[in-house]
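Subject: mismatched residue count in predicted assembly?

I count 916 residues in my input, but I want to confirm that the predicted structure covers every chain. Input:
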Amino acid sequence: MGNHSDGSPDTSGTVARAGQGEVDKFQDPGLPPHRLRLADTDPKAAKRAERQVAALFGISVVGTVVFIISYFAIDLGGDTSNATVRLQNTLLGLGTAFAMLGIGIGIVHWARALMPDHEVSELRHEIRTEEDRVAAMAIVDEIVEETGIKRRPLIRNTLLGAVALAPLPALAIFGDLGPRPDNALAHTMWAPEDGKLKRLSRDPDGTPIKASDVTIGSAFHVIPEGLNELEEGKLNEKAKAVVLLMRLDPASLNPSPGREDWAYNGIVAYSKICTHVGCPVALYEQQTHHLLCPCHQSTFDLTRECKVIFGPASRPLPQLPIAVDDEGYLVATSDFKEPVGPSYWERDMHERSNNNS
Amino acid sequence: MSAATTTAEPAFVAKTKGGQITNFVDERVGGSGILREFGRKVFPDHWSFMFGEVALYSFVILLMSGTFLTFFYDPSMAETHYTGSYIPLQNVEMSVAYSSSLNISFDIRGGLFMRQVHHWAALLFVASVAVHMLRVFFTGAFRKPREMNWVVGSTLLILAMAAGFTGYSLPDDLLSGNGLRIIDGVIKSIPVVGTFISFFLFGGEFPGTAVIGRLYVLHILLVPALILLMIVAHLFMVVVHKHTQYPGPGRNDGNVVGYPLGPVYAAKAGGFFFIVFGVIALIAGLFTINPIWNYGPYDPSPVSAGTQPDWYIGFVDGALRLMPGVIGDFHFEFVIFGFVLSLNVLLPALIPAGILFSVMFTYPWIEQWITKDKREHHVLDRPRNAPTRTAIGMAGFVWYCVMWAAAASDLIATHFHVSLNDVLYWLRALFFIGPIIAFIVTKRIALALQRKDREIALHGRETGRIVRLPHGEFIEVHAPVDEYKRYKLVGFESPEPLPAQPNENGVVDGSEKRRALLSKWFFEDRVAPATPSELEAAHGHHGDHEAIDSSADNKSISR
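Triage response: the counts match. Full output below for your records.
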């Protein structure tokens, strides 16, 4: 199709040149002639449409009745399965749907088939006329003049100053929305209390875990001893203290200097709170020794001290140093050496102070 | 004179009782004037104008169903033991908020239905706002005088997302609790004040006992009030501007063509409310949404794989997933002067959304600056007739969709049995090249459609009839289009690039040079509308063209 524009201005014979559009342009032919509908010309069709609309309104009535019957006739009390709830929900939904769709489709059908469908043209008016603008300006000038704000800069400036400062109390009054963070995020419940080391116990029942229970390849979801007995702030403490416990072949662990005694017989404990944005890192891939966070797929390698090998996390999971007490139960020898969970502005400061104490 | 008016008999006495009441009100509020102004106001009609209506109506449904839910919901994070009729959670320790949400679902007749209506309507609300904005963008309806209404609409999109998010957390189930956990993690990554904001939002450490009550007040009071305010402003401006209309015969920037408000438009729009309500009720009756009883109460320890946020938060979650925390040995978390800067969280949480919303809010002015078009526009552009704008919009849309898809990276991997890591690598690549491909492809499609329009305007439409001429040549018969249809195909502007122009000092400054470059980029690929002389020429030549053009003898062939 030879003579079409290829879209570029230089090689096309069909591109408009400056000024050409003004003279050589199709004229607006105006509104197309109105076309009559069947219902406009055939009284039978109009009658049929009328009956259809009425039938749709009738369907709406049926829908309303269905709703009311299924609300009152279905008793939720007796049944302990949720089949009754589901049944009632479905019937209420269908009843409402028919009640509403009957009215809605009925009205729209009425409008489309029977009401006049002549398109009307209306002129647009200027949103702001020049006359209004001039009049409004004159009024504003007059008002400004009457306040005398231009002549009395002292009033103007003090008012501006007062108004600028007045919102400050409104900000200050929100100061008690929360406490100062201080170093709340730096510590967890794992810190030994009165010299007594905390036992690792099962989540959620809280029974302590014996080292001999942890076979190679197994994984435990762990909470600190005493968490379930907390009266207040249980979830707050749990949100920091949850730990994953796994046992690997000791040879596959490669502890860095200073961490040699953090594991016991191939058993290692790592914080379960992702260092990305804090989801629980709940998936343990037994064969590859990877931990995977189900929220954003950060992947940590257990054999390299939970180094990040994939995903959006940037820091390894903190390790909990563990040992075994006299009765063979696993205990944490200290709190985490660094704050757990997502990074925050003061985190590094907290880590340094944790290690110095 | 005042005495004369007070003693004068009222000029009009209504005959019926109803008429007298109407007259009583009318004399006191001036309803006749309002009706005279608006009763026959003309509204253009097009299916794509209904997305805004869907948004408005789903908001009304949200207000109604939400009010019902507040009668039974208790936003307390106090601990309780569940005693309702859902057996699997009997005696489980949970918050009062979660327990009351379960009661709404299982022990209050119609409660589950209202919850589902509310949730589905919320999803539809944000979706219809978004689709409405896409319609406005792609048709150029944001141009003068509607720039401010575009900004109000953009604000409404953000408010709609805020309403959705604050409501999503209220049941205090495991899923929404994990959502809050993620928000907390993102907030904590904000430099300097992040930890404080987190402690102020949660009233202390996460999760605390305050956040649900606070979100509740935001959700049922502050955010809906702002939405309502913005809707009023939005509709007020629609009335002031009068509605835009699609191009076509008889339509221009000086008029508005459509149906009068009463009766046709009011009937259609009013009826449409019931249709939207009916469809939402149907979905709510048949399809479960957010089965909170399956998730259990919030607990920081467990999480289920494959969890998804509501769709409108997905693009932020996806961006979080796309960002690598470590590349080789390079970590995106830095320690600067002893403070932590966690760019692996901060960048994806703020930058893509920031770019999307900044461009969205400012686009009317960006385009105006490039095109120097300060005229009022009431006739919409067909998307093909503004190829560069359409391409920009599609680039942004694809960018958004890549992030959105990334929020389901794990589900894509499990459903299609592909490697999770590969899915993410591909999406990371698409994050950068997807918008570029979308831009190029869209622009080419738009230009091709414009050429197709020229073709039809000049040579008529293809009839599919193949005719063999006496000398053996086969041709397809083209039927000419009538003048109304043709005007729809040719009645648009195709601006040319506007070269840099000197300012009042006679100097072409740097900003003007950049504008000229952008103007070239915007308009250099263009297809001009067909002109009468071209139509004339097309009628004139037959021989070298495979199409037979519209003229009397061709019509006789096609008959």
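Chain B touches chain A through 141 residues (CB under 8 Å). Marking this ticket as 'not a bug'.
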